[in-house]
């Protein structure tokens, strides 16, 4: 058993792909046409950190309720955790690429951490070894 995908609701597929594959350095694994449950066109878009098994399904918001969730996937909490081997290099690369960090790097018992926002405003932890 393994966790295959999680979903992040986005407002635009292409902007989301650009953010995840650019500043975050993820791989675009799938981008294929698909249909909603009621037959309208959509895309099946999956991104994944290099070498990772679990991916993120980028799902375009469909309707008012989903649109309201864009950027607030987990009610303002940090809900996503990106672990890297070289914290300082990843932090510097992401900062240079325009990723907004909302906390400075700090050391916790579980490692180095800094909170950043994705393109929609969801909060993520960048995590690395101490």
Automatic annotation (TrEMBL):
PROSITE patterns, sorted: VOC
Annotated ranges, domain VOC: 2-129
Short name of any one Pfam family annotated for the protein: Glyoxalase
Name of this protein: VOC family protein
Organism: Actinomadura craniellae
């Amino acid at each position: 058993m393994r966790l295959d995908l999680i979903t992040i609701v986005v407002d635009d597929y292409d902007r989301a792909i650009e953010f995840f594959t650019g500043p975050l350095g993820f791989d675009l694994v799938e981008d294929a046409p698909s249909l909603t449950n009621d037959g309208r066109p959509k895309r099946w878009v999956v991104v994944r950190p290099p070498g990772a098994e679990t991916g993120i399904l980028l799902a375009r918001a469909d309707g008012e309720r989903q649109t309201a969730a864009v950027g607030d996937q987990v009610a303002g909490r940090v809900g996503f955790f990106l672990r890297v081997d070289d914290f300082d290099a990843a932090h510097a690369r992401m900062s240079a690429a325009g990723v907004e960090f909302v906390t400075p790097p700090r050391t916790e018992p579980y490692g180095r951490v800094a909170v950043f926002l994705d393109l929609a405003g969801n909060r993520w932890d960048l995590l690395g070894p101490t």
